[in-house]
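[job 0417] fold request received: sphinganine-1-phosphate aldolase
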Amino acid sequence: MPGTSRMPVSLRNSFTVKKGGSSSQLLSLNIDLFRNIVFFLFLLRWTRKGLLKLKGRGVFGTFADAYIAIRRNLYGLFLRAPGVRSQVQKQVSEAIMKLQSKLVPSGPGVVRYLNLPKEGWSEETVMKELGTLAQMDHTRWEDGFVSGAVYHGGDSLMMIQTEAFGKFTVANPIHPDVFPGVRKMEAEIVSMVLALFNAPSGAAGVTTSGGTESILMACLSARQKAYSERGVTEPEMILPETGHTAFRKAGSYFGIKVHLVACPAPNYQVDIRSVSRLINSNTVLLVGSAPNFPHGIIDDITALSKLAVKRRIPLHVDCCLGSFLVPFLEKAGFETELFDFRLKGVTSISCDTHKYGFAPKGNSTVLYRDTTLRSYQYFISPDWSGGVYASPSIAGSRPGALIAGCWASLMSVGEAGYIEACSSIVGATKKIISAIEENPGLNNDLEVLGHPLVSVVAFNSKTLDIYDIADAMSAKGWHLNSLQSPPAIHVAVTLPIVKVWEKLVSDLEAVVEGEKEKERVRIVEGKGAKGKSLGDSAALYGVAGSLPNKSVVVELASGFLDTLYKA
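[job 0417] inference complete; emitting structure tokens
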């Protein structure tokens, strides 16, 4: 075309190649840049995690944790090795079969009901079978031979609870308009327990199915609060190693990393300096016990409260076991410590009304300093096709009969009754402690852990295998609790035990003497003082419990749970 210069074909082709090459190089650079950014963020993330680990555990603690993890994994590989695995499985299967023979009735006289009867039974037949089931061979909790487990308030109270059950058998608090009486009772239960723990104006709470659900809800509330107010997406909580295992369950359920803090001898309280070191920007909750389950020790809640206020982190006090004892210690004339809402840092408390509140099993409460904290545990679904759905805790439908039984218990016993019960239970506990510490037949061999103030006393042995003592006490009909880390036994005193605490001490004295005699015989026979422990407690805690990898214990526990559903 006249007046228009044209680029030679060779130059146009060259330009196109260069242009295409430039785009390819730019794309390659962008990919490399993206990879570098991802690698940098990955490196930054794990460097930060490493620094937080060093800050929280220190150099020696970090190396110790690494050593334990490596040892655990290596031992796990060993347990899965050919030959070893088959032997382990054989022993686990034998232990589970032994367990099943104890828990699952068998024999020609045992009748199993695996399908619905073709025709419904008569009332007389049903009541007769219920009577048979109630009389199945069991540890006699009625005679006071069971540690904890059954928090019995007396036969007259049980009759009142049964009457309350009957009046509200079909009641469900999810329908407050249908069952207004249940709604009223539940609100009053929460109010009474809040007052017991010196809650401030504006405090709130809910009832739950038990201590585990109360703890789960407190952890969920703390997680949701941190996410809503601080944007925390990798939540962590700091827990005494003696804290109830429900906190670990909450960590597993709700994706909260759990840091365990040592509770060293001689006081067995959580180490406050270690707690402080572990706090970081992801920390959503601090935890203390009043008292803890294993040793009956009340953590230094005052110090934890100061730390919580200083670092602006919620503090939960687990008072499920202390329940209606700890609040009455002072009025009953016993030593006590501050642990409740009078401490500014305490933001939530769990309290089991079905323990020393003597309510029917399936009752607990979780209390909050204000309504906002409570609202973080709510579940609300505004757009469900079935209508707007809202529930205060894990359950939807709940048994109104249990709420009625709880309300009836609190109203029947009253403050004076709870003070009297506290005096009896804690008084008996202190007598057991005194016997262990002062009785020449016990104090040379047994040692009380820490300084328990409430209803639990834990003790280990300086000279004997404590698990042999536990098994020997079981042979005498006692159902006590074996502990680990450190090996020990604990007794949670209840009203039934109050009546037989002297027999507990005398049987313990006889068992200790019996174990010492066994050692003397072995020495005379030239076999050495220590024999092979053969009892159930020794097998579970002394042998399997000492392994660096707990997979064997997990299999045993899983087998136990399976056994519970074996008809």
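[job 0417] notes: The domain at 425-533 is CATH 3.90.1150.10 (Aspartate Aminotransferase, domain 1). The mean pLDDT is 90.
[job 0417] exit 0
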